[in-house]
Amino acid sequence: MKKKYSQYIKDSIDSIISEGRYRTFANITRIRGDYPNAILHMKSGNKKKITVWCSNDYLGMGQNQSVLNALKDVIDAIGGGSGGTRNISGTTNQHVILENTLSKLHNKESSLLFTSGYVANDATLSTLSKIIPDLVLLSDESNHASMIEGIRHGGASKIIFKHNDMVDLEEKLIKVGTQKNKVIAFESVYSMDGDIAKVKEICDLADKYDALTYIDEVHAVGMYGNTGAGMAEHLSQMERIDIIEGTLAKAFGLVGGYISAEKTLIDSIRSYAPGFIFTTSLPPSIAAGANVSINHLMVSSTERDQMHANVALLKSKLTEINLPIIANKSHIIPILVGDPILTKKVTDQLLDEFNIYVQPINYPTVPKGTERLRITASPYHKIEDIDHLVSSLDNIWREMKIARAA
């Protein structure tokens, strides 16, 4: 590479390093049958066993034996990849079955698979801007980057409303007026603070001002509701949501994203969205494994009940030692540190001395000055794991003289 271009690139990395937000990858190998433990591969070449406390495989379904059997059975029967885009030989029976299952889960007419939740948001929101004339997208200010990018890529008018502020949202809906078409885009569980959307109130405003509702349920599907359909089901609002977006990569334990909605809308997105049309479809084995995972969690509450019990216990123990937890009613456990360098020191010590893996969360994932640990408890963390995490954090907070909750 020519010298001046190399310098530009180096300067960009040096800037991140100087701000204390340079990210490093933990090289780990998960252990089948021993979740949430893993093997850490260190730069020295040595290995050690660690406990993972930041996985988005919330319910451990990526380790579920029935899911693994489905993956292996399909690979043995038909091979690895799908062989094409959905339009050109890449629609297999496994994809069709999974989309039907997702429609059943969310009680919608139709569903559409994408290669990730990010792509699902980006492709759908940008395409809505192209197929609905005079569209204004009203977006919660805390929405995920994929939603922000999708709205930006679409080019339609956008209005950002204050996070979970229904007065502000209504004022902006009134300002838009009745002549414009409108979509309200929001998340059900916000992944960094763990707070929950006012789903009913948003649906009420959508009805009042003739807007469509678009909900991102990626941190809620599998986790909430009688069948694991998400927070909208948990709050008895699912029928009022026009477009539900979800992921197969968190509670369902694999990879991929999707939307569920009425058939004509799904047909339009699949016909117009470049992010769907021009990419190879998910491997059939992944689709088959996800189908087993979803069907399991539709009838089994054991995993989510135990997960929520572990979350409640851990929150209680962290509160007892006055750690600065960001209060919420979800499964997300954010512990505020407020400094990127200090946050990295905390997570490094957790890993080096206590064999606990928690990834530091910093800008641009969260605003500067709100750097944090983001802890997730699975159904399979044991009481001794919880006690070890709490005592380790207590020791580090004391040693580093980090501020505690008042």
Write a concise synopsis of the structure shown.
With 406 residues, the protein is an alpha/beta fold. It has helices at 3-18, 65-78, 93-106, 117-131, 145-154, 166-176, 199-208, 231-234, 263-272, 274-277, 284-299, 302-320, 340-354, 383-400; strands at 28-30, 37-41, 47-52, 110-114, 135-140, 157-161, 181-187, 212-216, 243-247, 257-261, 332-336, 356-357, 360-361, 372-376.
Unreliable residue stretches: none
Note the overall shape. globular
Distance between the termini: 53 Å
The overall pLDDT, averaged over residues, is: 97
Radius of gyration: 22 Å
Largest sheet: 7 strands, mixed
Number of strands: 14
Write the layout of secondary structure elements.
Blueprint: H1 3-18, E1 28-30, E2 37-41, E3 47-52, H2 65-78, H3 93-106, E4 110-114, H4 117-131, E5 135-140, H5 145-154, E6 157-161, H6 166-176, E7 181-187, H7 199-208, E8 212-216, H8 231-234, E9 243-247, E10 257-261, H9 263-272, H10 274-277, H11 284-299, H12 302-320, E11 332-336, H13 340-354, E12 356-357, E13 360-361, E14 372-376, H14 383-400
Describe this structure as you would to a colleague.
The protein is α/β, with parallel strands linked by helices. It has 14 helices and 14 strands. The strands form three sheets. A seven-stranded mixed beta sheet has the order 4-10-9-8-7-5-6, sandwiched between helices. The protein is globular, with a radius of gyration of 22 Å. The chain starts with a helix and ends in a 6-residue tail after the last helix.
